[in-house]
Structure formats: structure tokens, C-alpha cells
Amino acid sequence: MATDGTLAGEATDLLRHLIRNECVNDGTVASGHEHRSADLLATYLDGSGVEMERFEPEPGRTSLVAKIHGTDPSAPSLTLLGHTDVVPANGEDWRHDPFGGELIDGEVWGRGAIDMLNLTATMATGLRHLALEGFRPAGDLTYVAVADEEATGIHGAKWLCEHQAEAVNSDYVITESGGFPTRGADGGTRLPVIVGEKGIYWCVLTVKGVPGHASQPFRTDNALIKAAEIVRRIDEYRPQAEMHEIWRRFVEGLGYPSELSEPLLDPDRIDAFCEELPRLGLARQAHACTHTTMAPTVMHGGSKTNVIPDRVELQIDIRSLPGWDLVDVRAMVDEVVGDLADDVEVTFPYADPSSASPIDTPLWDALQRVSEGFYPGAKNIPFLTAGATDARYHRALGSVAYGFGMHSPAIGSGEYGAMFHGIDERVDIETLRLSTEMWMALAHDFLV
Predict the structure, then answer these.
(1) pLDDT (tens digit, 9 = 90+) per residue, 26-51?
(2) Of 281, 306, 336, which marks where a domain is finished?
(3) Same domain, 268 and 298
(4) What distance in Å separates the CA atoms of residue 174 and residue 442, rounded to the nearest whole number?
(5) Is 130 in the same domain as 255?
(6) How many domains does the chain have?
(7) Are residues 150 and 260 in the same domain?
(8) Is residue 287 part of a domain?
């Protein structure tokens, strides 16, 4: 790759190539083609002195593991965890080609620029230069670029943690999200660290009716009408807010004045407060972080225009708060279905409870020290992400897993959030520089 000879230049070129590889994961086994980016990253790291290994549980679904071995087996180890797959993108909606990897006005455009090829690229860049400078950590430093994160990690992090744990397991793990600079009430910088994530419960409701001729709809048992009623009930359902520790420490860390912080921490007031908030992004975030949510997303039903449908499949994305399990989620679904229960079959094809890591750890302290080198006086604050990351599989192995990066203020946190799986995804070069330098600084701080 041609670069301008700087860390930011290398990370920028690497990111552009990753975007152009078009490792689109549509959820099918044959999609992804992450071998393209595994090959790219291996070529980039070759000659730096890192030890590399590839894993491919399915053809083309390749993950790359690169390691700088430590000198002390008893010292804490650290894994930098990126993913190389991206979600689909409709180019008609974008201002620029989502797979062009174009550099425009100091920003790299393309699918994955935010989620999370920017971090995957900067992690690799930082690792390469640490190795080239002869960095010898006390504990192992591992870089993992996994496949299939965008479809629950079955062929990526989940498979690695279940079948090749010795290759990827570390005491501490850092993966995507976090690190977007936010202004606190005192004017100082706050940097959220993702310490946990909500649970995922994908629910399928099969709604039953009785077929008949659509020319005579009176008093028919139409499964589609019943499914529509369930969708209406989901939209109107208002679960009780819950104030868990991560949310409390996040709000308290921002130092908001009482007129803002008190309703955000009051389970009886937060719903009305979110309804009135002019900042829609903050309202959605606050609601998601304090409620178990249900979103109807897909409906299939009917066989022919002139036939009353007797089967409708309704898919619901449920995201649960810490402490919830399948029994709690099923009770909520049953409450919504109510008197239609006899005509509805409930299944959960995918279920994964919420996971979180402790906040007060040596890695937290190291991230705080390193952050202050980039944003003097900055304070890191914990955050619960509503989305899912591969961190949950490493937590199951006993790792402390956070989500972090180092971002410039060039693109606001609200705009960043909208670009995850959205349109016009892009990242500025200054963010790539900051993240690359942050990974290197963290390695020197935490692993020596």
C-alpha cells in the first residue's frame, strides 16, 4: 500500500482497502468473504515480527490472530478485537459509493468506516509499529480481526472462543464503540467506555388463523389482522424503567445539573422526560439504556391476494437490561400477546443475555491515564450499549471486556451514532491518528 509515511497515513490507506474489500455479511454462511481482509491484514503485518495464525470454520469466513508474546506469563494480557465484516449498503441512498473507500475533505467514506473498520485498521497499524519498534510487553498483546460479527459471530468470535480459546483469550479485551468525546456540565471532556451491553432475544410469533375466500371477509379469522393487533400492542407497550449501576454512573459522570440528571435517574419520570427531550438522539439513548425494549421488524404472511391468511410470522427484536433472563422476556411477550395467546406460538431462535464487565479495574485506570494524554482533564465514564458486540463471548471466558477508541470532535457523537448501519458512513483522518496512537500508548502503559 502507498502511504504518506505517517501512522495516520497508513491507517487511512488500510481502512480504504478494507472498505473496498466489500466484506458484506447478510447473515448467510456464503456471505462475508472476510478472507479478503484477512489476506490484506496479514500482508500488511508481514515482516513486522508478529506471530500470525488464521482460522476458517467455513470457506471464506476467515479470522486473523496476530500476537506479540509477552516476557512474563503471569502478567496481564490484552487483546485488541476488531471485525472485518460489514452490513449491506444501498448505494442509491449514499452521496458517495459505499464501497469506494474515497478520501474526501479529510474523511474516509464507506460502509464500515465507523462500524468498525476504522478501529480494526488502527489496531493493526498500532500493532505493526509496536512490533517494528521492538516492543516487548510483559503480558501478551493479541490482535484479532474476526469474521461474522454482524451476524452474531457464529463463524467468528463465538467460534473462536468456543473452539480456539487459547489463541484469543486474554485477561483484558478492547473492542468497538466508546471514546466519542462528550462535553460534561463543567465544560470538560467525557469519554464513554462501553463496559456492558444489553441482551439479545430474537422472538418469532407465529399467529394462526383460518383460511377463507377474501371476497367474503366478514367474521373471518384473519391471522394478518391479529398480527397487526399485536404490532399495535407492542408499539403501545410501556415497560417500567430500571436504573442499573452503569446508567447511574454514566449520568453522574456527566455532571449534569439536577433538572436534567434527576429525571434521567428517576424510573417514574424518565419516560415523560424522554418524550419531551428536543434532542432525539439523547432521548432514544436514554430510553434504550433504561428499558428492556421490543421492536417489531419483519412480518411474513399470506399466500394469495384472494385468500384470507391462516399463518403470519412476526419477528421481534428484544433487547434486555442487565439482570433479565429468558423467563423475564417471555413474561413480557406473554403480557403483550394477552388474550390472543391461544392463537400465537412463541419461539426464541436466538437468545443471549446482557453481559457487563466490572468498572474499577487496572485496564480502566490505564485507559483513564492514556485518555488524559489526548484530552487533558478528560474523565472516562461507563456506558451500556444497546447494540451487541463480540465482547460478550470474551466475557464468557472470564475476560474484562470494554469498548473504546479515541475520536476527534470533528463529527459529533450524535452523528456518529446515526451512521452505525446508516447512510453516508465516514470517519475523519484525525480520528484514525488518535486511535492509532492511543493503542500504542495503552500498550506501553498497561503491558510493561
Answers:
(1) 999 999 999 999 999 999 999 999 99
(2) 281
(3) no
(4) 11
(5) no
(6) 3
(7) no
(8) no
CATH number of the domain enclosing 235: 3.30.70.360
d(CA 434, CA 124): 14
Q: What angle separates helix 117-132 from helix 35-45, to the nearest 10 degrees?
A: 20
User: Rounded to the nearest 5°, which phi and psi values hold at 103?
Assistant: -105, 110
User: Do 344 and 420 reside in the same domain of the chain?
Assistant: no
360 and 348 share one domain = no
Which tens digits make up the pLDDT trace of 48-69? Answer: 999 999 999 999 999 999 999 9
Q: Which three cell numbers stand for residue 2?
A: 502507498
Query: Does the pLDDT at position 235 exceed 90?
Result: yes
- Measure the CA–CA gap between 172 and 87, rounded to whole angstroms: 27
Residue 344: which pLDDT band, with cuts at 50, 70 and 90?
very high
Pairing state of beta strands 189-197 and 379-385? parallel
Q: Is 281 exposed, middle or buried (0-12, 13-18, 19+ CB in 10 A)?
A: middle
Q: If we measure between CA atoms, which residue out of 374, 389, 379 comes closest to residue 420?
A: 389
Q: Is residue 189 part of a domain?
A: no
285 or 143: which leads in pLDDT: 143
Q: For residues 215 and 331, state if they share a domain.
A: yes
- Distance (Å, whole) CA 327 – CA 325: 5
Tell me if 206 is assigned to some domain: yes
Buried b or exposed e, range 96-119, using 16+ CB within 10 angstroms: bebbbbbbeeebbbbbbbbbbbbb
Expressed as residue numbers, the domain containing 273 is 241-281
Evaluate whether residue 192 is within a structural domain. no
